[in-house]
Fold:
Amino acid sequence: MAEFELIADIRRRCGIAPPVTIGIGDDAAVLQHTAATTEVVTTDMLMEGVDFLVDEVAPELIGRKCLAVNLSDIAAMGAKPTAAFVSVALPIALGRPFADRFFAGLLDYAAAESVTIAGGDTNTWRGPLVCSITLLGEPVGGRPVLRAGAQPGDWLCVTGACGGSLAGRHLTFTPRLQEVAELVQRVTVRSMLDISDGLAADLHHLLKESGVGAIVDAAAIPIHADVALLPPIKTPLQRALSDGEDFELLFTIAAEDGPGLLQSWRHATPITRIGVITSSKGCWLQTATGQEPLLPLGWTHALDGSHGDGAR
Amino acid sequence: MAEFELIADIRRRCGIAPPVTIGIGDDAAVLQHTAATTEVVTTDMLMEGVDFLVDEVAPELIGRKCLAVNLSDIAAMGAKPTAAFVSVALPIALGRPFADRFFAGLLDYAAAESVTIAGGDTNTWRGPLVCSITLLGEPVGGRPVLRAGAQPGDWLCVTGACGGSLAGRHLTFTPRLQEVAELVQRVTVRSMLDISDGLAADLHHLLKESGVGAIVDAAAIPIHADVALLPPIKTPLQRALSDGEDFELLFTIAAEDGPGLLQSWRHATPITRIGVITSSKGCWLQTATGQEPLLPLGWTHALDGSHGDGAR
Structure:
């Protein structure tokens, strides 16, 4: 079953109406309740055997990840989280001790990020663990940042470093909420998403929604040290471009805002300029030997290969 | 694993903070964005083998039910729905034809109820079908109706008739959105919930949240004709009290509002007075031979027995 086709079909069938102003296709939906009240809403469902392995991962980290992937989507909208709704199907066989540790990880992290757990649906069953969280938030700078909005000449930037997350970082990553709060207050972020499918694939999503192209400088891409922890079946650069679950922010800003932002950026998480937005719609990788097409290298999930996300 | 204990533990751990004003424990959470902007949010996760059987039910009806249970929660808040977020884990083995029919049932019903599908997360996997929907709404009468709010002397009323839903009605029921829109505009509904666990069990939820008791008139309880379709292992009255998944509204109104409402109620779905709220906290069933305690007869789910709901 081709998930992306199914999602595209669903998206075509679903119109939007007030209070919804942005529906399927961004990191979160946008609801405009009044001129002054804007809400962003995202949802992610994580499944045993696809997004985590219950035999190999501490239950607390599973609970934490279920919230963290949603926090990353809220950050990608230039927003801060407010309230979460947590639905779970807990395997009866794992028992109450597992459930307690799962929720401890989730609730502790929610408290640390000032997220109110406002509701949910707690079930037990004989099937595998499934957790679906819907997270609400509000734009830090008043208006949300969308995937659409990149303009020719924009600098293409990324937070942190990419690749190798499956060595463990996909369970412990820090959503870039603090970084985004500072970012949107300092410059106009024209377009943004978080990297879940992989830098190359997610860049294609941003370009498609914005109706533009890009040239990416291969030498500029920040490669995470974690790539060394994984088998050398891909080069470090390939990993940075395609591993996925980095949960870094990929965004564009006006070229005139670029130098000032990068020179004065003091946050521990670096921001790196990795390319430029072009009016022609191709996506190119600039290497020492020339330009080659940068394909939306499909992120093949290491555990299952069947993961997709309707909000992406 | 005792779900209700787990849910109670989670609820104790979760405080509320603005914009959330009502959190875990009602049919939906309430968010007060501004004095004039109130939002209600509910979520329900339905699982194969627990809430439906994929081998015996048309996929369209499964998709419909996943939305309908959430619509019923929104109705129970005295609200109307606005936007839904749909997360699914689709079994690969059921293939694209199943997915198309599932979504057709869900999206057609959403369109019919003017619900915008604003986002979601569409996954495939080797596990069973799971669908989690988060539904947003806004109070019809400006303020939401809570479970807490029943006062001694209130009439206890129910829409429609109860019992026997597992003969098929649990898949085809109509959430009482139209009825509630008329109800809240005609009287002050002091407390309300929808009957999912069963009339007796849900009445206990309402009484507990309101800090009151009730006397229920056994002869007044409207028993659905569907009870005749199920095995006579329970009496019709027992089925009406405990079968669950009726998705009727159980609510209280001031006694002085009662006669006028019932005499002038012209909607096809009847409203029946089935009892009275008392200041003493007991819950009693008045029969021809006297009063007996009305226990929160646990709704044992016919398919699995393991279903619970954190939002209830």
Observations:
- The first strand of chain A starts at residue 20 and ends at 22.
